[in-house]
Amino acid sequence: MKIHHIGYLAKNMDKAIASFEALGYERETDVVYDSLRDVDIIFLTNDGYRVELVSPKSDRSPVYATLKKLGNAPYHICYCCDDIKAEMERLRDEGYTPAGETEPAVAIGGADVCFMYRRPVGLIELVECRE
């Protein structure tokens, strides 16, 4: 699988964007509100690398507790796959556990995404890429 992005938690979206831009990242998208996850999201790129800044809007967000625990930090790697259901089954066989249901991601054009977890690796995200 090819890496789509690195997910990075940010307490303050504006400060995080400015900090990444100072490192040479450019905005790939505008900030988008994802109501399913209660987060603001923006994608930034630098020399072919993509970072997804994720900032929870309230304590109802599934990443709120993780931000409180880790602070501003990377917290997942997202991988492109052709068939998300088949890839989820393959990863289940490898010992990964789904962390919720497959849902559309507004910040990725409505593409289906799911999160999975395995202790030696941590949290990963799958996105069904139609490129």
Q: How would you describe this protein?
A:
This protein is an alpha+beta fold and about 130 residues long. It has one domain: Roll (2,3-Dihydroxybiphenyl 1,2-Dioxygenase, domain 1), CATH 3.10.180. About 20% of the residues lie in helices and about 45% in strands. The protein contains three helices and ten strands; from the N terminus they run βαββββαβαββββ. The longest helix has 10 residues. The protein is globular and about 40 Å long. The two termini are about 15 Å apart.
Question: Characteristics of this structure?
Answer:
globular; 21% helix; 131 residues
Shape: globular
CATH architecture: Roll
Whole-Å distance between the termini?
13 Å
Query: Can you write the helix and strand succession as a string?
Result: EHEEEEHEHEEEE
Structural class: alpha+beta
CATH H-tier superfamily: 2,3-Dihydroxybiphenyl 1,2-Dioxygenase, domain 1
How many separate domains?
1
* Helix coverage percent: 10-25%
Low-pLDDT ranges: none
- Name of the CATH class: Alpha Beta
Q: Helix count, per DSSP?
A: 3
Beta-strand segment tally? 10
Largest sheet: 10 strands, mixed
Average pLDDT, all residues: 96
CA-based gyration radius: 14 Å
CATH topology: 2,3-Dihydroxybiphenyl 1,2-Dioxygenase, domain 1
Beta content comes to 35-45%
